[in-house]
Amino acid sequence: MCKTPCPIRAAPNPATEESDVERRIAFPGLFAANTHYPEVAHIVASPSTFLLKPHRQTTDIHHPFTMPSAVKLYAAIDDNDGGVFNHWSFFIDGPQNEGKLVFQAMGSAGRFRFESKNADSRLYPNLIELFYVAEIDAARIKDVQVIAENLPIPDSTPGWNCQDYVLDLFKALERDGLVDKDDDGYRARYSELWRKQDGLA
Pfam families of this UniProt entry (predicted)? Predict the structure, then answer.
């Protein structure tokens, strides 16, 4: 015998409600499905509306994309298709495709020009090495792009080429404070990159 009063179920009003039997006859599939889905605790049926009520509340958890706080800067070293020197370019490894940028000096002695494009240096078929040099705050990518576009190309300097452009760009980032020139790791990597130049004795 129940120690607490049992709830009394009111009889359906024939004028306004259908009985459970009538609902099960009219919609057998819905009631049968309930036996296979224990998470559905109540089914309220009417001639035109069905409302499924879960037995517990659930919370949707969203994982929005977040921009990384830093992006890496590389020197991409490519085979120059039989040229005397390997080709170098400056690569920003941004978080998404639109954030992956390549800056480079294209042409030949006395006729070099700046070129910028949205690309991933890892996908270049002639890539020999992707050499990590530094990293910057992701919010400063645009600043790097402006510096790269305005970096002087000294066509009158004998021997200046695409490799010098990459080295000069890192030095420009130092001057503008985007790269910490006093960081020991950065200085060691820059020195190693400098020694990778073709033609050095």
Answer: DUF6540
Distances (CA, A) of 178 to 34, 71, 128, 187: 62, 12, 27, 14
- Dist CA 21 CA 83 (whole Å): 87
pLDDT at 6 over 70: no
pLDDT, tens digit (0-9, with 9 covering 90-100), for 137-192: 999 999 999 999 999 998 778 889 999 999 999 999 999 999 999 999 999 999 99
Range with lowest mean pLDDT among 45-59, 102-116, 145-159, 163-177: 45-59
Cα–Cα distance for residue pair 80/167, rounded to 1 Å: 18
Tell me which amino acid residue 191 is: S
Contact 186, 72 (CB under 8 A): no
Cα separation, 181 vs 157, in Å, equals 25
- Residue ranges of domains in the chain: 70-196
- Which residues is 51 bridged to in the sheet? 44
For residues 162 and 148, give the distance between their C-alpha atoms in angstroms, rounded to a whole number. 13
As a whole number of angstroms, the distance between CA 186 and CA 173 comes to 12
Per DSSP, what are the bridge partners of residue 117? 102
pLDDT at 110 > cutoff 90: no
Contact 190, 170 (CB under 8 A): yes
Rounded CA separation 32/25 (Å): 11
